[in-house]
Amino acid sequence: METIGLGVIGAGIWGEAQARVFASEPSAELIAVCDVREERARMVKKKYGAKRWYTDVEEMMRDEEIHAVGIATPDFAHREPFVCACQAGKHILVEKPLATTEEDLLSMREALSRSQVKVMVDFHTRWNPAIVIAQRDIQEGKLGELMSCYYRLNDIIFVPTKMLSWASSSSILWFLGSHTVDTLRFLVGSEVKRVYAVSRKEVLLKMGIDVADLYQAILEFENGVVATIENNWIVPNTNPHWNDIKINLLGSKGMISMDLTNNQAVERYLEERSDHPDILIMPTVHGRALGFAHESIRDFVHRLVRGEEFLVGFEDGYRVSKVILALFQSAEERMPVEVQYE
Ligand SMILES: NC(=O)c1ccc[n+]([C@@H]2O[C@H](COP(=O)([O-])OP(=O)(O)OC[C@H]3O[C@@H](n4cnc5c(N)ncnc54)[C@H](O)[C@@H]3O)[C@@H](O)[C@H]2O)c1
Fold it and tell me: Are 225 and 146 in contact, with CB atoms under 8 Å apart?
């Protein structure tokens, strides 16, 4: 089997997840890790046995042993490494959201069009078995005609206050709303036509983090399906899992309900707290990185090696970002907004 050389740009929480999978694949070799923070680049390089580390993206792009890169810089900082990778001819796994501004989206699309580079956007919920089974049921008509969806995907308040240093430069809509919108596009099999969003900003602002607490929105799809979505960053830390996830898919002949917060099978009661240890998203079993969040990264490597098309491409990321931009506009204007894709 052909082996490909891989690099990771942004060696934070998720860059480390990429490095973990890249380093464990027999068909790949983790060549280098890049982070503007030298200590992170050095640490992740050492922990996962990479050959080199860098603090400069352009320097890393000159590394001829690297054929493809994973981009895991903060939400608002994907453009620069993406454009550099296109110019250097390195294939790309870019974390969600693809980009957070119109200008970034256009410049990334332009750079990609001038290259032969292949791109996957890491919307890993599309590898969640519960979601894939539901999508298959919908496609096979088991629910009749899909009428409406409810999708709530929230984070405990630890995430914007302690985990992410850059929460106020992003939004729960970018961080989790992008998954919500992409997963709905996958389930509904159609594009979002119009959105109406309402937001509140109080709890995090009082804690010194200038970002909205929550968004509630209605999405109308081109095929008539209506979805209600909720994304918030203020779930109490006592929630049994870091996410709070509830989904309902209503068809003319059937319905699917999911409680993915508690779909962890295991209830754990410790002296200080009770929780549901993760067995679905990214557990490590006998040293192997399992779960759907690792699986999407692994799928990137496998498809790249086999020369197969990725399951989620640049256009998916582009369209999701356009929907999120429309949601912000709607929340600001307090009016429904038609999504402009071009
Ligand atoms: N944390 C999660 O649960 C999670 C899950 C899935 C996807 N993601 C996505 O992954 C991306 C990274 O998130 P994270 O949680 O790992 O953030 P993080 O803050 O832990 O890591 C980001 C890293 O990028 C580095 N960086 C910033 N600018 C850089 C540049 N120009 N060149 C090189 N390195 C640079 C930072 O020093 C930092 O180490 C985000 O887009 C996020 O939405 C995060």
Answer: yes
Q: Over the chain, what is the mean pLDDT?
A: 97
Beta strands in the chain (DSSP E): 4-9, 28-34, 52-54, 68-71, 91-95, 119-122, 146-155, 192-200, 214-221, 226-232, 243-251, 255-259, 268-269, 274-275, 284-285, 288-289, 337-338
Residue 150 pLDDT greater than 70, yes or no:
yes
Q: Which atom of ligand 1 is nearest to the CA of 165?
A: 19
Give the whole-angstrom CA distance, residue 100 versus residue 79.
9
pTM over 0.70: yes
Distance 11 CA to ligand 1 centre (A): 7
State the closest ligand 1 atom to the C-alpha of 40, by its place in the atom list counted from 1: 39
Q: How far is the CA of 225 from the centre of ligand 1 (A)?
A: 34
Q: Where are the domains of the chain?
A: 4-117, 128-283+319-338
128-283+319-338 CATH = 3.30.360.10
Pocket of ligand 1 (CB under 6 A): 9-15, 34-37, 40, 57, 72-75, 77, 80, 95-96, 164-165, 175
Question: Tens digits of per-residue pLDDT, 98-145?
Answer: 999 999 999 999 999 999 999 999 999 999 999 999 999 999 999 999
Confidence band, pLDDT 50/70/90 cuts, at residue 2: low
What CATH class does 4-117 carry? alpha beta
- Taking the CA of residue 34 as reference, the ligand 1 atom at the shortest distance is 33
In which band, very low, low, confident or very high, does the pLDDT at 1 lie, cut at 50, 70 and 90? low
Tens of pLDDT, residue by residue over 262-273, are 777 899 999 988
